[in-house]
Amino acid sequence: MIARTPEELPVLFAQAFNAGDPSGLYEPGARQPAELADHLALTQPMTVVTRKVITRGDLALLIVDWRVGDVAGTATDVARRSPDGGWLYAIDNPSGVA
Prior knowledge:
Layout: H1 9-19, H2 34-41, E1 46-56, E2 59-68, E3 71-81, E4 87-93
């Protein structure tokens, strides 16, 4: 899965999460947040609604509402365009507004 725009990234993340492994959507060396393992353990599907994407050159700020069963939050994430033109998470903060 390759996000060709930063707007595609949350939807692809939810699809990969629901398949059990969103790790391919992170830059090499980027750390997945600790909460991710807890959310994957819920074994319920994730849904996302993108509130806002602000892109400047090869960086994008994403504000995304997400839900996994009864657990919900709003993520504040940073994505970067990779050399192949795809977009990957550089910073994933699922509790971005907490």
